[in-house]
Amino acid sequence: MPRLRAQLASSTDPEWVKVILENFDDFLIDHASCERKAMAYAMSVVVKYPDRTEIIPDLLQVAQDELDHFRDVLLLMNERGLQMTPDEPDPYVNQLIQVCRHGREKRLLDRLLVASVIETRGAERFRIIAEALEDPRLKDFYRDLWATEARHGDVFKKMALNYFDEDEIDSRNQEIIDAEAKIIANLEWRPSLH
């Protein structure tokens, strides 16, 4: 039986959240950018694979969720007098994209599994943030995001079942989560989600 639940090969150091709490405004700006990019990523799979009609409804739902999150983070930023800044390269995502293989079919599987791990890591970190925050409204906000992102991690992995067999999914997923664990371990802690 495949492990349909998304998983990670490592856990975030609990001390990481101190950087977030000490630089929360900077984190919010990065968070907004991450939500916008997640929406664009889901839509880019629709654009590159328009013939994969079985997964388009799920991709559209993920994109809508991420757009809603983007709006919600922008509202929080507005309340704090913050504005979006030009995007900076995300070393975490860029390194994960480098793990993706070439070839239409292999690339599709890898893109789905990379999205799964990004969403799952985001969920893990939103949980850590929710547990560390004292403001009840922010705590609830990040708790809700944690649940949605965890679901997205599962959805991306399950999408792959439409086109790939379980053994191939499990084998490639293990390679990707192992690579992700190495990437995350070597990143400098910044006031960012990744």
Task: Characterise this structure.
The structure is a single chain. The chain is mostly helical. The protein has one domain: Ferritin, core subunit, four-helix bundle (Ferritin). The protein has 7 helices and no strands.
Mind telling me the CATH superfamily name? Answer: Ferritin, core subunit, four-helix bundle
First-last Cα distance:
31 Å
| Number of helices in the DSSP assignment | 7
| CATH level-1 class | Mainly Alpha
CATH topology: Ferritin
Uncertain spans: none
Report the strand count: 0
Mean pLDDT: 95
Query: Helix content range of the residues, please?
Result: over 70%
The main β sheet shows up as:
none
Helix/strand order: HHHHHHH
Q: Any descriptors?
A:
194 residues, Ferritin, 0% strand, globular
Question: What is the element layout, followed by pairings?
Answer:
Layout: H1 17-22, H2 24-48, H3 56-79, H4 91-99, H5 104-132, H6 136-159, H7 166-185
Helix pairs in contact: 2-3, 3-6, 4-5, 4-7, 5-6, 5-7
Brief digest:
The chain is mainly alpha-helical and 194 residues long.
